[in-house]
Amino acid sequence: MESSCITLMLLLVLLGLLVSSSETNSGIPGIPGSHGVPGMPGRDGRDGPKGAKGEPGLPGSVNARGEYGEKGNQGMPGPIGKRGRRGPGGDSGDPGTVGEKGEKGRSGDHKSTLKSAFSAKRGGHEYPPRDSPIRFTRVISNDQGHYDSSTGVFTCNITGHYYFVFHASSDNDLCMIMKMNGLNKAAFCSHGEFEQVSSGGIVLHLLTNDKVWLEATDYNALVGKENHDSVFSGFLLFPD
Q: What 8-state DSSP symbol labels residue 28?
């Protein structure tokens, strides 16, 4: 009986504790549970505001080469360069169309045109020496004085085209050379042991101070006597 009372009293105490625990929602802390499984990583957050400008970095190495930057805007045109060398000539173009005929010009004054002419005969009975200018000493005409009768040399004073001609009387073989500035321009020969007349002519383009003369070779039977004249003449055809 006594043990039953004790048991009953213990039950009442436990019941009281249970009622008190239910009213205060507090009890004896339990044993901590095990760690749970880690959750999935969250998404990246939004970019934050732009930070302040940093301090300048250290100078780079002289030999180091940085990355290429973005292409800049086109700069202003530079000054015009020096003129280059002239290139090779191009191919000739097609001929152009014929232009209209111009008006007739006024008549020119023949006195103001450029003139140069002479004519002289061979004097003396001796044959001329070879390899030297033949002197035609008897001047027929030489108004401009471009022919020198003492030397037998014509000197150009007007640049242009000239015509030179000679008529030579000979009593044997004769070969004459027309020379300009010491160069052979034409050779004329006739052969025969009797009196004969030979002639020759040539057109030459002369510059100022060019010289023209006739010269004999080993065949130099040129004569200059009455009724057997030898004549050297020249005149300007047209100036440049």
A: -
Q: What angle (nearest 5°) sits at the alpha carbon of residue 116, between those of residues 113 and 122?
A: 155
Q: Take residue 40 and report the two structure tokens written for it.
A: 């999935």
Which 3-state string (H, E, C) describes 192-212? CCCCEEEEEEEEEEECCCCEE
The per-residue pLDDT string of the chain (240 residues; one tens digit each, 9 = 90 and over) reads 556 666 677 777 666 666 555 444 556 766 776 777 777 887 887 887 887 887 887 776 666 676 777 888 888 888 888 888 888 878 888 888 888 888 877 766 555 679 999 999 987 778 888 889 999 999 999 999 999 999 999 999 999 999 999 998 888 888 889 999 999 999 888 887 777 888 899 999 999 999 999 998 888 888 877 778 889 999 999 998
Match domain 115-239 to its CATH number in 3.40.605.10, 3.40.50.970, 2.60.120.40, 3.90.1150.10. Answer: 2.60.120.40
Residue 176 CB partners (closer than 8 Å, separation 6+): 134, 166, 168, 187, 188, 189, 198, 200, 214, 215, 216, 217, 222
